[in-house]
Amino acid sequence: MTVADWCILGAVVLYLLTLAPIKPLGWRDFNNAAPRDPAFYAPPIRARVLGAHLNGIETFPFFAAAILLAEMKQGSQAVIDVLAVGFLVVRLAFVGAYIAGWPTTRTLLWNLGFLLNVLIFISPIAWRA
């Protein structure tokens, strides 16, 4: 298993952990029989947490596919690993910016994360092993 492979798991854990704390912290309002009740996510902080979580789900397929394709096409593993770790760091900052309510920073970080994914995807033609 490569560092980039572990980053795939890290991306899943990150988007799951983004949402996990607000349910027990909002235990008085949370109804496990209706876990997707929009009323629970009405307060702005919960709405931002949900948004960050959903965005993590949305960005995951391209990230995972980019890594698997780059490795399959024998891109430089060192480059793929560095870019994958960079993506996770950017995603962590993105989640923080999203929850903090910093939309411009969030957008810049999202774009940087997308650029890192593109670089992972094209790494086999840009950097050979």
Kindly describe this structure.
The protein has 129 residues and is an all-alpha fold. The protein has one domain (3-126): Four Helix Bundle (Hemerythrin (Met), subunit A). The protein is built from 5 helices and no strands. It has helices at residues 3-19, 22-25, 44-72, 77-100, 103-126. The mean pLDDT is 93.
Could you provide a short overview of the structure?
This protein has 129 residues and is mainly alpha-helical. It is built from 5 helices and no strands. The protein has one domain (3-126): Four Helix Bundle (Hemerythrin (Met), subunit A) (Up-down Bundle), CATH 1.20.120.550.
Highlighted features:
elongated, mainly alpha, 5 helices, Four Helix Bundle (Hemerythrin (Met), subunit A), 129 residues
Write the layout of secondary structure elements.
Blueprint: H1 3-19, H2 22-25, H3 44-72, H4 77-100, H5 103-126
Helix pairs in contact: 1-3, 1-4, 3-4, 3-5, 4-5
